[in-house]
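STRUCTURE:
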């Protein structure tokens, strides 16, 4: 199931297809109303019995909060975007995991660390975000996917951090990147904001972990991936044209930079998993 944020006629798809394809009982629901400014989607999956589950994730520029529910000891982690396709380990067996994927421009939580320091990691949630620890037990003890969504929505109503000027600049720049489908010139972005390219890079790395150029490439990668996965008999030249690549060779090179596979190889990998089901 694809998740999209529409901005100025363009779409951003923070997708992790190998979670959906390589786990059991996967469900997802897109955030609605005021929540969609900060949250892309809520999702849930179950890991296999008597197995240490692992699967690969790809760059999406987002971070997830992931709760382990239904086990003897409830827990939660901050799960951050990797720099490239990476295998994630250490998921408990036969556990329900409930996740919330936050958009890069989210204003709900302020992290204790620079996001650049946290990329590609799973960190105990309370180590990086100051919040009431009771939410971990409440989410973990909830009986259903939708009960967990309601609990989390209620919790964050009073958790939004105040928008400071630096984040305002990052949010503006991110939306410019979305609306250009990742094709905006960084010098032009610098001129529009009135800040140097170095200042923008520092602020991007602090808040989302990636430089403006890296994030722009991720937006193009994710939008291209959405076309590849959700279009039957895809013609790669259509993807090249739609996403502003110079030619097919440049597109494949850019795709492999993040996925370590060609677009067709990645689609084959996703389709071969036994739990490839839609909610």
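SEQUENCE:
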């Amino acid at each position: 199931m694809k998740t999209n944020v529409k901005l100025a006629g363009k779409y951003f798809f923070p997708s992790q297809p190998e979670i959906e394809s390589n786990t059991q009982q996967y469900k997802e629901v897109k955030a609605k109303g005021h929540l969609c400014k900060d949250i892309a989607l809520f999702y849930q999956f179950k890991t296999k019995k008597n197995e240490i589950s692992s699967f690969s994730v790809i760059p999406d520029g987002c971070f997830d909060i992931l709760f382990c529910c239904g086990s003897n000891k409830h827990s939660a982690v901050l799960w951050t975007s990797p720099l490239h396709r990476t295998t994630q380990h250490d998921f408990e067996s036969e556990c329900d995991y409930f996740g919330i994927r936050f958009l890069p421009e989210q204003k709900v939580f302020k992290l204790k660390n620079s996001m650049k320091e946290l990329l590609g990691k799973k960190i105990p949630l309370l180590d990086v975000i100051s919040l009431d620890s009771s939410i971990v037990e409440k989410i973990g003890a909830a009986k259903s996917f939708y009960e967990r969504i309601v609990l989390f929505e209620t919790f964050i109503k009073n958790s939004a951090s105040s928008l400071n000027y630096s984040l305002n600049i990052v949010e503006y720049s991110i939306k410019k990147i979305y609306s250009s489908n990742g094709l905006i010139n960084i010098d032009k972005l610098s001129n529009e904001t009135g800040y140097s390219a170095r200042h923008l890079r520092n602020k991007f790395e602090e808040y989302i972990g990636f430089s403006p150029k890296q994030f722009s490439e991720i937006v193009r990668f994710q939008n291209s991936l959405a076309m590849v996965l959700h279009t039957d008999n895809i013609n790669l030249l259509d993807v090249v044209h739609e996403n502003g690549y110079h030619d097919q060779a440049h597109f494949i090179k850019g795709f492999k930079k993040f996925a370590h596979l060609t677009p067709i190889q990645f689609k084959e990998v996703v389709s071969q998993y036994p739990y490839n089901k839609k909610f």
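REMARK: The chain has two domains: 5-156, 165-271.
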